[in-house]
UniProtKB/TrEMBL annotation:
The chain crosses the membrane at residues 32-52. GO terms for biological process: nuclear membrane organization; protein localization to nucleus. The lineage of its organism: Eukaryota, Metazoa, Chordata, Craniata, Vertebrata. The gene is TOR1B. Belongs to the ClpA/ClpB family. Torsin subfamily. This is Torsin. The keyword Lyase does not apply.
Length: 339
């Protein structure tokens, strides 16, 4: 049955239901009759249910590659590298029928540079319900797993969740925020799911997507960007190879990074390290314009500069990069628009 006929059926059910509801009180026999009709309908057309309720099928889970490309190009500012890598990684992975391992992306950079934003873009273009999809699972290290002494309990729980979630939908998305603050024991706990195994305890994880977000490497990335700026070079000239050192060994040699303690890195379980560059004044302006657009407000350049100028920029003397990226643009704008 095609979507058109499904929609027609759905409409029929709804109009019948609502017209019945208008006649008060609904007699029991009508209600029973309705229920029977609905049950019959669902028995005849089991797909009808999927029309209303999210399920792990193409109607609800399928990549809109154009949508992702457009979002990355038009709404993510100042990230020529991240934008390119993400698009390639995600579309490449999702076009493979039988990937050998799940997709594992590790997003690195200063706060407010777009790591969360990009994760949302992926979710929005993969699931019809976007971040509200039951197949998207977000964990924030300090919020979900705050106490180091409970690490064994967390680990068991997290493994159960991942297993349960992937069993009900292989195309599940797991986002781990503050990955650098995640206990090494927990990182070890998720490692088996990232690997090349065909099955782990009878479940295949190869269709799943894992995204790790962290500030680890942010300072090194910032330094590379600043060096380019000081040399009078365009930031768009920065190549992945210029940042390789920043997001590989150096990151993981810093003791504060949980990654360092684990073998995720040596085993090459991360498919792509994605660097996010620090944002300049002009990028913050773009964030403000975009936020105004999203809110349906006219884009007033005075507002744009006032908000962008309220951010603090580093290093102290040159004042090139916003130290919170675009993170607090929304809040600043709330404050400004209220007056
Ligand atoms: C995919 O995204 C494009 C661009 O945002 C949009 O115009 C199109 O309607 C989307 N397609 C589907 C099937 O949602
Ligand atoms: C079936 C199952 O284990 N579902 C879990 C999926 O993950 C969430 C956390 O995001 C758990 O709350 C569910 O219990």
């Amino acid at each position: 049955m095609g979507p058109g006929r499904l929609a027609a059926l759905a409409w029929l059910v709804f109009t019948t239901l609502s017209s019945t509801a208008a006649i008060e009180p609904i007699s029991t026999s009508i209600a029973v009759g309705m229920a029977a009709a609905l049950t019959g309908l669902l028995a005849a057309y089991p797909n009808l249910l999927y029309f209303f309720q999210e399920c792990c099928r193409d109607e609800w889970v399928s990549l809109n590659a154009t949508g992702l490309k457009v979002d990355l190009e038009e709404k993510l500012f100042g990230q020529h590298l991240a934008s390119r890598v993400i698009l390639k990684a995600v579309t490449g992975f999702l076009s493979h029928e039988n990937p050998k391992k799940p997709l594992v992306l590790s997003l690195h950079g200063w706060s407010g540079t777009g790591k969360n934003y990009v994760s949302q873009m992926i979710a929005n273009n993969l699931y019809r319900k976007g971040m509200r999809s039951g197949f998207v699972h977000q964990f924030i290290a300090t919020a979900h797993f705050p106490h180091a002494e409970n690490v064994d309990v967390y680990k068991e729980q997290l493994q159960q969740w991942i297993k349960g979630n992937v069993s009900s939908c292989p195309r599940s998305l797991f986002i781990f925020d503050e990955m650098d603050k995640l206990h090494p024991g927990l990182i070890d706990g998720i490692k088996p799911y990232l690997d090349y195994y065909e099955h782990v305890d009878g479940v295949s994880y190869r269709q799943a997507i894992f995204i790790f977000l962290s500030n680890a490497g942010g300072e090194k990335i910032n330094k590379v960007a600043l060096d380019f700026w000081n040399d009078g070079r365009q930031r768009e000239e920065i190549q992945l190879s210029d940042l390789e050192a920043a997001v590989s060994l150096d990151v993981f040699n810093s003791k504060q990074s949980g990654f360092w303690h684990t073998s995720i890195i040596d085993k090459n379980l991360v498919d792509f390290f994605v660097p996010f560059l620090p944002l300049e004044y002009k990028h913050v302006q773009k964030c403000v314009r975009e936020e105004l657009k999203v809110r349906g407000k006219a884009v007033n350049e005075d507002t744009v500069s006032v908000v962008a100028k309220e951010m603090t920029y580093f290093p102290k003397q040159e004042r090139v990069f916003s130290d919170k990226g675009c993170k607090i643009v929304e809040k600043k704008l709330d404050y400004y628009l209220e007056d």
